[in-house]
Design goal:
Number of domains: 1
Distance between the termini: 23 Å
Number of helices: 1
Strand content: 35-45%
CATH architecture: 3-layer Sandwich
Bound molecules: FE2/S2 (inorganic) cluster
Shape: globular
Radius of gyration: 13 Å
Strand order of the largest sheet: 1-3-4-5-9
Length: about 120
């Protein structure tokens, strides 16, 4: 799934691969012109995507441990919601959430929001 997304700004969604490409309780990194995106797959096969950058000190969230619908950052163990990007207390912060669509097992990411700085 490692690929560079060269997309037009107005192209809001881009297909990046299949759910089966992402290991259960793991992740894959998608290179984008707007920064790396970590695509996660939970045990229940829900797919999430965050900017691959912890809000603490930019640790690679793709290398974190997925549990439930959260990921624990590999650097200092902050716990981040895969759904909202919010950091669990007592720590504070928010990782950038990327919209995900799964249709017939194919994952699309909302890179248009990245292009807009979101
Ligand atoms: S960089 Fe993620 S917890 Fe510190």
């Amino acid at each position: 799934m490692n690929q560079v997304l060269q997309t037009a700004f107005e192209e809001a969604w881009i297909t990046v691969g299949c759910v089966e490409d992402v290991p259960v309780l793991g992740s894959r990194v998608v290179k984008s012109a707007f920064g790396d995106i970590a695509v996660f797959r939970a045990a229940d096969d829900t797919v999430f995507a965050l900017r691959n950058e912890c809000p603490h000190k930019k640790g690679p969230l793709s290398e974190g441990i997925v549990h439930g619908h959260s990921v624990t950052c590999p650097l200092h163990n902050w716990v981040i919601s895969l759904r909202t990007g919010e950091v669990a207390g007592p720590d504070e912060g928010c990782a950038g959430v990327i919209g995900v669509k799964v249709e017939a097992g194919v994952i699309s990411l909302e890179v248009g929001r990245l292009a807009g700085g979101g």
